[in-house]
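User: Can you model how alpha-D-glucopyranose sits in this protein?
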Amino acid sequence: MERKWWHSLTAYQVYPRSFYDSNGDGIGDIKGITQKLDYLKELGIGIIWLSPVYKSPNDDNGYDISDYYDIMDEFGTMADMEELIAEAAKRGIRIVMDLVVNHTSDEHKWFVDARASKNSRYRDYYIWADPVNGGPPTDMPSSWSDSAWEYDKESGQYYFHMFSVKQADLNWENPDMRSDIYDMMNFWIDKGIGGFRMDVIEMIGKKPFEGIINNGPMLHEYLREMNERTFGAHDLLTVGECWNADTEIAKLYSAPERHELSMVFQFEHICLKGDKWYPKPYRVRDLKRVFSKWQKALHNKGWNSLFWCNHDLPRAVSAFGNDKEYREESAKMLATLLHGMQGTPYIYQGEELGMTNIRLGSIEDYRDIESINMYNDRIAKGDKEEDIMESIYQSGRDNARTPMQWSAEQYGGFSKVQPWIAVNENYREINAAAQTNDETSVFSHYKRLVALRRSSDTIVYGDFRLVNESDDDFFAYERSYNGETILVVCNTTPENREFVYRGVAGSELLIGSRQDADISDGSIKLRPYEAVILKLA
Ligand code: GLC
Ligand code: CA
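Assistant: Here's the modeled complex, given as structure tokens:
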């Protein structure tokens, strides 16, 4: 496989609103990110996935864009953005912009114009339809409500929105619209960004009147066109958010010879927990099956992302680890399990500290439109409030959106004033200042994993083989490349366990979650959630 700069680097996702507030208004901002670049350099990452910073009325925290060419007021200015790109570059970090082009805000000038008149040249940039029997044109629900159609009184037609009513879906069948999007992408490419993370990109080929939203017939054609007219001529990273990709579809997106995207960001392992609002336990053997399937299917055929969480998901250690007595141990174990695989790892801000979910007192404390809509729907349907809050505690997106915990100072050192959303009270123990100089911290463990990837071809390019597929106590696998074999062993239980494996005799410990490791001739004794990476003799 041809080598690419993003194969061996680790990405870090910044959710700007919650990263660092540089000017004391309680909201994270671009200057705040620039001020924290040295921290990210210390961690060793080479890519920042920046959640949206474009102009937005913030119905969905920036995923509703009203001007792609301008910066959100609270976040700063275009000059701040240029400074961030330049300062990051000095530290060997490239900025990957979130590209939200399935929809725009209803406050985007295209939509404002389109709505004003059926004859607007922008009318067809969106999806409109006449009422049917006095109601919506189809019975398609949106992701967050009962109908994806919103009635527009002025024109007597409905417009289509897969997310909130303030996020109107663009009509990708319109070539002028596509050209305008490509111009905008080239504007950002010219600013020197490192690439694009493509929000719900699998939806752009939709056929709403046929009930097709994801993986529509024109999807890959549009992506090839986009590649050709924008980033294809540059050496950029492009990653598509694909909830509905199986391994075959993932190859369509990411096989280099198809000239679409660099990689997919797919969720099959996350989906093992079942329905978002009613999660259920999963078995370690199922996790192994899913990861192994992806490792094998994309090896030399495409490229995958590796992640446990992002701004839409609960915190990794709370969802997949043990965020109580074994918080640090299980956070390190999860990191090891993931970062030894093939793909580009994504660390979500605070994950490298083992930050946890939050339980806030009432729905008024929550900010996320998805949780609030779900709450109102279920209250209306007569659900018990405590059950609804439990859903939010388990899976609500605000779990990941509480402010980054920088220090033990007030508000976790995120801001000098009360932030836009509550800070997790555990900031006094869990914070960056307490971890950056501690060799045994979660942060230092991540740092070692990130560094190993930069130096080990076996981790980046090796093939993958599960060890003991049906065992639920260990997640263990080998990676082999050019005669070298690396073994990753993770104890997924809160108990001491012995991993019996002949091959470990004489092996070298590359990374241990407890620094040392108890390796004998034919086995390793692992403490609760302990994880090791060994180079076999
Ligand atoms: C993606 C984003 C999410 C957003 C949605 C609509 O799933 O990750 O945060 O709400 O798209 O843009
Ligand atoms: Ca601010």
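A couple of observations from the model: The pocket of calcium ion (ligand 2) is lined by residues 21-23, 25, 27, 29 (CB under 6 Å). The first strand starts at residue 11 and ends at 14.
User: Helpful, thanks.
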